[in-house]
Each structure stands twice: as structure tokens, then as C-alpha cells.
Amino acid sequence: MTNRPLFSGWDRIVQALSAPLTTLQSLQDAIVTIRGIVHPQNPRVNDLSLRSYLSTPAYAQWCLEVLPFVQQSFLRLPTLFPEGTIPILSQGTDRTLEFTKIQCCALLSMMFFEAVPFWGGDSDRMPPFDDFSHLHAGCCPAFLESIFLYFQRMSKPAEQARLQNEKVTIHRRVLPTAETPTWGELTTPLAPAHFSPSLRIQPDGAVEADFANRYIGGGVLQGGCVQEEIMFGMSPECLVSLLVCEYMLPNEVITLRGPELVGLCEGYGRKVRCTGEAPVAPGTDWSRRLIVAMDALECYQYPAQHQYTPSLMDRELTKAYLAFAHDPTCAAIDPPDRPLTTGHWGCGAFGGHKPLKALLQVMAASQARRALQYSTFGEEPFAQALQAVVDALIEQHWTVGRLYAAIVKYGRSCDDEVPFLPWICKEAAVTVFFWSMYQFRLFLLPFFLPRQHELNVPFLIPACSSHTTCSSGYVALQLAEQCSSLLQRAIKEEQVIETKSTFADLVTAYDKKVEEIIISTVRRAFPDHGIVSEESFPVSPAEWKEWSWVVDPIDGTTNWANQNPVFAISIGLAHRAVPIMGVIALPSLREVVYAIRGRGSFYYKPETKQFTVREPSNVPQDCLLTTGIGYERGPLLQATMGYFMEQLPLCRAIRLSGSACWDNVMVATGRISGYWERRLKVWDYCAGSVIAQESGCRATRFDGRPVRLDDGAEDYIVAAPRVHDYMVRTLATHQFYLAGQPTPH
Ligand code: IPD
Ligand code: CA
Ligand code: CA
After folding, report:
1. Which of 153, 203, 575, 713 shows its CA 20 to 30 Å from the CA of 16?
2. pLDDT at 448 > cutoff 60
């Protein structure tokens, strides 16, 4: 059995917390000190957001009234955990852990003070983020608000007795191989299920399905905010599971019993907002609340048709079966008639095909003898179609095994003509009802077609890591990192160089290689999206797709070809030709930065940290400017040099890096005050413009118009706001330059 330590540098922590904390400043200082003690190798904290949240009067009051309680709760850890450790729910072992609510509160206080010691075991198996540092840094304010409400509720004197007695239990359930059903052979009849667009997965008497990441909690502590994260964020006691659960294997689920709902929220993804404390009805018995965490297959890795292959279906069926099976350790509160509410499990970021996932869950529930309530989350016709199909199959006495065989057959038939649900009906000869519906397939088709990967920009987690929910941002970050490591190694090699439009316009073997890696992965994960990329798809489309990736595999190729370290990898995403997400790696600095519209700009490497614009004190005297000359050797060069010569005596200096993406990052992170260039391609600024704007800079055309990728313009300027005003104003006097004309003599 593995245990994780709870106290690292405890005496020094106690000393640091010897005085009561009642102000924001004292809290901030305490976190910085404690982080330095517990994580000396990673002591920095980003205090920006904590400051902005807590500086409102309501939170000043919170600091005064509730913070001392959180401090005391944390300091009570040694009394509550005299062994000095907590056990881990290791993979492969069916086991339950029980914590009193007072213990949960102490553990959550430890997470709040960012004082969770490294657990000491195989670091890949535990969620990598187990304290609230990213929440403090501004990831998903709704969750931090719910945590404040949680501590507020727990601090009330009237609650203390309850906290001593009530418990949260966490059960890792493991299905032995011998008990795994052979799905194709089952003769269990399909059982009725109830489909409705208006059901909600919430504490209302039914068991709640958690569409989990295999690392329980998914991105809840790193800014992810979809179903699982919202569930955990609004019921903070669920977060204790992140301290004790290794990631789930395919034959495992995790049941949480007893966590209470604290926060109310509205919205989804990045729009999620905490709207206040959830009312608690008198007599509410939280010990009856059961949540079952079930992680779905990450289907985006497979072509849609593969989802019907037996091995992948078996994986999902077995997982859902275990999740739905009544938990013998909770028999008293989980009688045979207790229903479970589920829905589109693994159909968002993970790319599962909704009708298939619905039928697989019906099969699993039939085998597990669990009454199933299925929410289609507002999709009324889809609920009706599913209800009709399942009812018809039941009427025809279909068994789990028969439906399994039919689905496998569909997968093999490659019948693109008939979508999945109509095909199943055809198999069952359920013609009367269904074929009449199928006549209206134009109306119904969207619900039946395999749904390709949905874009999940809003779900990007500011601190993505390799195991977190897949999203476009996640894919882009992984690619940027992978290609950055490749180029860090390859820069030492003699480069294989070819020329393009002129002897000075280069492409190297690594431009092509990096591009191939990026494009092939993006294609697989997002088959519906467009791609514009410098070497292979260099032409901006006449009509931009709903979503398009815009890639410069190596920006600064001339530098790269000379083994000069100033180059970048740029991956952008545009929504209807408007840049919306950007990831840029600067391999030689080992930096990766990224941004999503509306979510701020972050360093991903060397560590997750938000950054904001830096304004020089005096404009233009204190400005460090930069421009690019690109491949222009004609009259436009004179024009660029005209503005250059005019500004040079007025500002601190002007530099030329040779990489537009690099320059964008330098401006966004405050290392350069402003950058302009007359002739850029979309891949030179798509990603960078989002990163710069999200950090508070302005990125526009020379005349201040917003950047769109479909406006045919090639001029671009990015700068801190006051510098931007200045540059737009001064560039306006260079009419010839704006028009791309040579300087008049
Ligand atoms: C070039 C660089 C350069 C800029 C040029 C770009 P590439 O991109 O970003 O700094 O001045 O306009 O074309 O060809 O190295 O990817
Ligand atoms: Ca390039
Ligand atoms: Ca470029």
C-alpha cells in the first residue's frame, strides 16, 4: 500500500502561519512563503488574479471572517492525520478511503495554501496539479468562488458537529478480468431507458455520472471547465480525490460518496460563472449522494468508423458496465431501483459518436441492471429518436449480444449511405416508425451522422499537460512542445537548404518535417478543419472554413538555416478567418506561450504563468521597436527604412530579429514595445496576434483596423496600447508606405 506524506517543512509552515491571517496581503505573503518551503524548486506564484479577485470589498470581508478558519483548518492537519500520511488508491486495487468532512476541509485548506507535498511515487500516475495555484493565477474564477463559498459554509459554528460526523468516501472499483462480460454473447434482454432533453446530472436522487478524465477531476485545477470540472468545482469536496487517486485503468471507475454541492453555476466552458451558494434543503442527507467517475475513450485519435470495432466498444461497454453496476459497499443507499443519470459521455472533447455512445450505455445498463436516465442536453429530436429506437428494439426482444453484433456489422459494412441509427432500425426491420422518420432525414440527419471532433477552444486549460482533456489548444500545445524539442536537438546539425522564390527565400528539411508532424496530427484530430501552412498549403483560401489552422513550422527560416537561435514555431487557429487561438514555441529559449481569445495569455513553458503587457513609461523615448524586412529587396524596403530612419533617433533602439512570430511574443511579453512589418503572410501573425491581444497589446493593420485573415492585407502592427497609438499615428503620415508604394524622392 502506498501512502503520501502530508507534512514537508511543517515547523517552518507553522511558524509562517503563527499570526492570524485576515488580509489579502497576509494571505498572499503566506502562500509565497509556504510555497517556498514546500516547493523550493518551483517557488514562484502568480499573484495577479488572487489580487484582483480578493481586492473587492466582499472578499476583504471574506479574508476577515473566513480566512482565519481556513488557516486553523490547515494547521489542524497533524491532529487529524496523526500518521502524517494519507493512503493512495493505487491502480489495480479495489479499495475505499473514508475522510470525515473535517479532514476534507483540512486537506482542501492545504491545497488552498499550495502546500501539498510531492507524493513521492510514480509521478505519471497522479494528477499533476493538486493545489489551487492555477486557480489563484486566474484559471476559471467560478471554481475559486465556489471554494470561497465552501470555506465560508464550513466556517460556521453551527456546521462543526456535522463536519465531525459526515464523511466523504472514495472507492476505486476494479472489475476482475474473470467478471468482464463477453459482450457479443450476452443474452440479457435490453432494458428500458428514459431519454429526455431536460434531465440534468445533479444531486436529485439519481446516481450522477461524471464524464471523467482518466486522471480524476480532469482539468479542474488547471482551468478546464466542462462537465466533470464543473461538477468538481461546484462540489469542492470532490477535489480531495485528486490527492489520492492514481489514474483509472480501463477496468476501473471511481465512486465518490457524500460530497456536498456548494456552488451554483451557469454557462459552460469558458462562459461558466458561479452565481452563488446552492441552497441546502432541510434534512438533506449528503451521504446519499453518489457520483461515479467514468473516463471515456479518447475517440478523436481514431477515424470515426473505428468506434464500431469490437475492441474499442468492449472498452467502453466494460467501463460503463462497472460504473452502472450497483456498488456493494454502498448497498444501503444504492438499492436496485436507484436510477443513474448519464448523457453524451465522451462525445465532446473526446469525439465519441453520440448515437453509438447512447446505445452502448443502454447495453451496459441492461447488463448492470441499472435504471438509466439519459439526458440529451436540450436536443429534443435526438431524445425522441433514441427513445423510439430503444423502445422498438425492446419490443422486438433484442438482447445485448444481438445489438452488439448489429453494431459490429454496421462498422464493417462501411455503409456510408445509411447513418447509424436508421441502419440499426433497418437491421431490426423496425420499418414502420423509423422509416417514416427517415423520410425526414434532412431534418434528422445531423443527429445521426457520426459527429467528428468538436472544437473545444473554450475548454482549453491554461496549464495543459499530456493527460488532460483533448482540445484544439491541447493538441497545439503538445505539437509545439514536441516540435520544439525536435528543433532544440536539430539546430546543431548542418541544415539541408533549398531556395524558393529568390536565392534568399529558403526552406529547409526541418521546415517540411515540422510541418508534416503538425499537419498530420491536426488532420487526424480535427478532420473537418481547414489548414493553411507556409510550405504545403501556402494559399489563403478564397473562403475560410468555420475553423482553420494556420501554421508556420519554422518562422525565421533564414536564422534557422544559419544555426542562429532566433526562430519560432507558430500554430494558430482561426474561426471564420478571425484568429482565436495561438501557440508559439521559441525552442532556443525553451519557451512556449499561448492564448485563447478571452482567456488571457500564458506561458506554458518553462512554467504556467499568465503574462500581461508592459507599457514603456515614455513614448517613444523608452520604446524598443522592431520590424522585419522579409524577402523584400525592392522599393518597399526603402519605405520600411524610411519609417525606420524617422523613428530611430526618437526611440531607444530598433532591432531586427528575423522572425515575425518571435517579435510578436517579444511584444506580448513586454520585451519589445512595438513591431511593424509591411508584407506578412497570415501564418506570420495569426497565432501571435491572439497572444499579443490577450496580453493587453493591440494587434491591427497599420491604420488600426482589426486583423482578419481574409482581408487580403499584409501590413501588421502589434504594440503596447500607447505605443500602438503612437505608431498608427506616425505611420499614417507615410501614405506611400501604407499603400505598399516606394518612397517618393
Ligand atoms: C519570415 C520571418 C521574417 C519576416 C518575414 C517572414 P519565414 O518568415 O518572419 O522575420 O520579416 O516577412 O516571411 O520565411 O522565416 O517563415
Ligand atoms: Ca516559415
Ligand atoms: Ca514566417
Report:
1. 153
2. no
- The 10 Å Cβ neighbour count of residue 129 is 25
Distance, CA of 49 to CA of 63 (rounded, Å) = 15
Atom number of ligand 1 nearest to Cα 552: 16
Measured in Å, residue 694 CA sits from the centre of ligand 2 at 24
For the CA of 511, the nearest ligand: 2
**CA 550 to ligand 1 center in whole angstroms:** 15
Residue 433 CA to ligand 2 centre (angstroms)? 57
Q: Phi and psi dihedrals of 297, rounded to 5? A: -70, 140
State pLDDT tens for residues 246-276. 999 999 999 999 999 999 999 887 788 999 9
Give the pairing of strands 591-596 and 578-586. antiparallel
**Sign of dihedral through CA atoms 532, 538, 540, 542?**
negative
Average pLDDT over residues 110-133: 88
Query: In sequence order, what DSSP letters do the residues of 40-68 get, joined into one string?
Result: TTS-----HHHHHHHTSHHHHHHHHHTHH
* 8 Å CB contact between 236 and 220: no
Of 511, 555, 672, 689, best ligand 1 pocket probe by most atoms within 8 Å of the beta carbon: 555
As a whole number, mean pLDDT of residues 556-563 equals 96
Q: Which whole number is the average pLDDT over 22-29?
A: 87
Mean pLDDT of the chain: 87
Please identify, by atom number, the ligand 1 atom nearest to the C-alpha of residue 627: 11
Ligand 1 neighbourhood includes 530 CB (under 6 angstroms): no
Average pLDDT of the segment spanning 230-244: 98
Which pLDDT belongs to residue 2? 82
* Nearest ligand, CA 535: 2
Q: Are 287 and 302 spatial neighbours (Cβ–Cβ below 8 Å)?
A: no
What would the 3-class secondary structure string for 388-424 be? HHHHHHHHCCCEHHHHHHHHHHHHHHCCCCCCHHHHH
Mutational pocket test of ligand 1: of 684, 716, 717, the residue with most ligand atoms within 8 Å of the beta carbon: 684
By most ligand atoms within 8 Å of CB, the mutation choice from 659, 666, 675, 676 for ligand 1 is 659
Ranking 47-61, 209-223, 293-307, 349-363 by mean pLDDT, the lowest is: 47-61
518's CB contacts (< 8 A; 6+ apart) are: 479, 483, 533, 551, 553, 571
Gap between the Cα atoms of 284 and 299, Å rounded: 39
Distance 716 CA to ligand 3 centre (A): 13
> What per-residue confidence (pLDDT) applies to 353?
86
> Distance (Å, rounded) from C-alpha 531 to C-alpha 552?
11
Q: What is the pLDDT of residues 161-181, one digit of tens each?
A: 999 999 999 999 999 999 999
Q: What is the DSSP letter of 270?
A: G
Atom of ligand 1 nearest to the CA of 534: 16
Cα distance between residue 115 and residue 13, in whole Å: 9
* Residue 561 CA to its chain's centroid (Å): 35
Distance 555 CA to ligand 3 centre (A): 4
Extract the C-alpha cell encoding 332.
Answer: 444501503
DSSP H helical segments within 208-257, as ranges?
Answer: 227-234, 241-244
Say how many Å lie between the CA of residue 553 and the centre of ligand 3: 8
d(CA 374, CA 226): 18
Measured CA distances, 149 to 155, 277, 595, 733 (Å):
10, 7, 29, 56
Rounded distance, CA 286 to CA 262, Å? 11
**Distance from the Cα of residue 256 to its chain's centroid:** 23
**Peptide bond between residue 43 and the one before it cis (omega within 30 degrees of 0):** no
Q: What angle do CA 46, 50, 56 make, to 5 degrees?
A: 150
Reference 648, options 703, 724, 730; nearest CA is 730
